[in-house]
């Protein structure tokens, strides 16, 4: 199955036009978050890929200047009547494949439970997520994203266990430390981008697509292909980005 995969296009900073190859027409488009802020990414997806199903998972930037508790519903409402399927702990079945999608977040414990509190303090002081995302009108707190991660991890575990067909998981945040950029390995900031959720990387999951890290990796973890295709920022494109976005799910 031919899949076109993108994340972290960050259209809020400049336009990005995907490269198309009509001889390798995709059967599914996967957008793993940080396409644009708020509703704009859904609008772009519907306009850019009008003839193929699109699975869209929100990244942290989609939540910017919006409320955590309403923006997903707003994106889903906007996508009604289009071929875009917005997933937040949601399922989409396509051609014998089951797609599971969620933003995912992290528990800040990827480097060990003893450093999680330090990691949350660092994130709250350093990341825009906790300055401009709202949670019922208040600033989003790291503790809230830890709760969301736990809910998403539990949901994914249950869905994977119950799946009766091959599974593709799409999250914005990375599920494993095995895709960490070498120059960030061991740094406390890693915990805001990656979780140690390798137990979810198991059959019948065959592929897990993520974004958020601005570092492109493609390899096997527990026999599951874990990959990303992230553009990054206009002045700092992620190494290894594939403009055509073409991958094969097998």
From TrEMBL:
One of its GO terms (molecular function) is hydrolase activity. Residues 1-215 form the Calcineurin-like phosphoesterase domain. It comes from the Bacteria. SUPFAM superfamilies: Metallo-dependent phosphatases. Transmembrane segments: none annotated. It comes from Sinimarinibacterium flocculans. Pfam families: Metallophos. This is Calcineurin-like phosphoesterase family protein.
């Amino acid at each position: 199955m031919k899949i076109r995969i993108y994340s972290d296009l960050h259209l809020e900073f400049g336009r990005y036009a995907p490269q198309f190859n009509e001889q390798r027409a995709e059967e599914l488009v996967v957008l793993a978050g940080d396409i644009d802020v708020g509703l704009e990414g859904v609008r772009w997806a519907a306009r850019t890929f009008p003839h193929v199903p699109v699975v869209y998972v929100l990244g942290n930037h989609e939540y910017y200047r919006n409320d955590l508790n309403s923006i997903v519903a707003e994106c889903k409402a906007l996508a009604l009547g289009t071929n875009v399927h917005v997933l937040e702990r949601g399922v989409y079945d396509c051609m014998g494949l089951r797609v599971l999608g969620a933003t995912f977040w992290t528990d800040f414990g990827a480097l060990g439970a003893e450093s999680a509190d330090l990691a949350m303090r660092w994130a709250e002081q350093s990341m825009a997520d906790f300055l401009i995302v709202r949670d019922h009108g208040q600033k989003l707190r790291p503790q809230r994203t830890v709760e969301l991660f736990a809910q998403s991890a539990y949901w994914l575990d249950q869905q994977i266990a119950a799946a009766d067909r091959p599974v593709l998981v799409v999250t914005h945040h990375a599920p494993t430390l095995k895709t960490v950029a070498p120059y960030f390995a061991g740094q406390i900031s890693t915990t805001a981008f990656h979780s140690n959720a390798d137990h979810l990387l198991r059959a019948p999951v065959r592929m897990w697509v993520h974004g958020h890290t601005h570092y492109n990796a493609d390899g096997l973890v527990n026999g599951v292909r874990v990959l990303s295709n992230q553009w990054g920022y206009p002045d700092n494109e992620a190494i290894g980005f594939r403009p055509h976005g073409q991958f094969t799910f097998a």
